[in-house]
Design a protein that fits this description.
The complex is a heterodimer of chains A (115) and B (115). Chain A has 115 residues and is an all-beta fold. Helix content of chain A is 0%, strand content 57%. In chain A, strands 2, 4, 5, 6, 9, 10 and 11 form a 7-stranded mixed sheet that branches. A 4-stranded antiparallel sheet of chain A has the order 1-3-8-7, with no helix packed on it. In chain A, β7 and β8 form a beta hairpin. The relative contact order of chain A is 0.33. In chain B, strands 2, 5, 6, 10, 11 and 12 form a 6-stranded mixed sheet that branches. Chain B has 115 residues and is mostly beta strands. Chain B is built from no helices and 12 strands. In chain B, a hairpin with a 5-residue loop joins β7 and β8. The chains are: A mainly beta (115), B mainly beta (115). The interface between A and B is medium-sized, with 21 and 23 residues.
Chain lengths: 115, 115
């Protein structure tokens, strides 16, 4: 299994509070991603990173920011959490090699509840 | 632009019966195709992938899928399912977008194996 951990695994917070989720990898993969998973929507990309300090927006980036100061860590921050951000968040990694174009490896997920 | 359509949100099937999970995609460029499986409370795991060559690809746990370019489909099949196959299955398409392998996931199909 790819070495990807997410912390925390579960979090309950209140509307308006800041929340930071952490993804840590031991695979030295270049690309890292944050997705949210919601019933009826599958996985939707929030932000992704293609290197240290290099990030870009996905399809549902409003209300989220990210940072990547080290290859192994990718942080997702909800500046002011809202109930619509209640979801399961997955981190994924990939390395753009010929034998694995587009193939991603996923972390175990973080279940976030915003009350 | 690329998109993935999983035609069935839920598929109930009796144990030892065959199953087919349907996936259609659209893309203006050539693509790579994937099926991922998600067991309860876990992240996604790669089941199989089509990159090139033979249109019939075999994956883990006895699953296989066939790439049909003319019908833009990548249906997943298993000749005899087991209780342990109960999970959610995601079809995904990857295509080059400005040097980046953009991945789009379908909304998922829940396979329920009935004893």
């Amino acid at each position: 299994d790819a070495g990807i951990t997410q912390s925390p695994r579960h979090k309950v917070t209140e509307t308006g509070t800041p929340v930071t989720l952490r993804c840590h990898q031991t695979e030295n993969h270049r690309y890292m991603y944050w997705y949210r998973q919601d019933p009826g929507h599958g996985l939707r990309l929030i932000h992704y990173s293609y290197g240290v300090k290099d990030t870009d927006k996905g399809e549902v980036s409003d209300g989220y920011s990210v940072s990547r100061s080290k290859t192994e860590d990718f942080l997702l921050t909800l500046e002011s959490a809202t109930s619509s951000q209640t979801s399961v968040y997955f981190c994924a990694i990939s390395e753009p090699i010929l034998s694995r174009p587009g193939e991603q490896f996923f972390g175990p997920g973080t279940r976030l509840t915003v009350l | 632009a690329q998109s993935v359509t999983q035609l069935d949100s839920q598929v109930p099937v009796f144990e030892e019966a065959p199953v087919e999970l349907r996936c259609n995609y659209s893309s203006s460029v050539s693509v790579y195709l994937f099926w991922y499986v998600q067991y309860p409370n876990q992240g996604l795991q790669l089941l199989l992938k089509y990159l090139s060559g033979s249109t019939l690809v075999k994956g883990i746990n006895g699953f296989e899928a066939e790439f049909n370019k003319s019908q833009t489909s990548f249906h997943l099949r298993k000749p005899s399912v087991h209780i342990s196959d109960t999970a959610e299955y995601f079809c995904a398409v990857s295509a080059n977008s400005g040097g980046y392998q953009k991945v789009t996931f379908g909304i998922g199909t829940k396979l329920q194996v009935i004893p």
